[in-house]
Amino acid sequence: MPRSSHGGRHELGQNFLIHTPTISKITALVTATKGPILELGAGDGALTRPLAQLGRPVTAIDLDEHRIAGLRRALPDVKINHADALTVPLDHPVIVGNIPFHLTTPILRRLLRVGTWTQAVLLTQWEVARKRCGIGGSTMLTAQTAPWFTFDLHGRVPSWGFRPRPSVDGGIIQISRRKDPLIPGSQRTRYQQFVRAVFTGRGRTLDRVIANASHIDPGRARQLLRQCGVDTRALPRDLTPEQWAGIWNAIPE
Is residue 98 annotated as involved in ligand binding? Predict the structure, then answer.
């Protein structure tokens, strides 16, 4: 196939999914959702084809104009657009895609910041999927967004399940927008600043870090942690979304 005007395989992050069990699992997860579907990075259509059989409106995008042309011929009933996952409007209820590994973080950050979607089923790098789902402890990004989203890990994908084969395995992650957020959206910016201050703050114990980040007395910080069932020896990565929200909601404005 001719080289895209946007670059070759490495520039586009093209690792095409060929692992049949993963294709079936992603399709099953999307089947359980409702509404029109937006696929990011359609590539050769490994996911586009089964998604098109669900009887729901599907829009698939890709940067490679040659792949787009082939998909339009093969799937005339699917809306195939030449677009960028970093700029396309995220206005479909369901987002799905085999995300280019080198763009995993910026795409995730954008998903968690903009759009009106309700469910996202994504194939990302394995380590990114683990971290986003809190396996081994929460990351700052997950803690900053967990009051509004839930993260679920649905399995590991071997590197040999892609062509060409990448250097790392993949992971299937499902992100769901909470119907009832743990913190009002109007407080999102201030809350995220607070989480950053806690993750990057100094202090020998968590109560000291919380006190410094929220400008309250250390004794009051210890009391808040006890109320939320958090040990002062815990690390920020150990806190659950509910504990983060409980601490934040109890801090005086």
Answer: yes
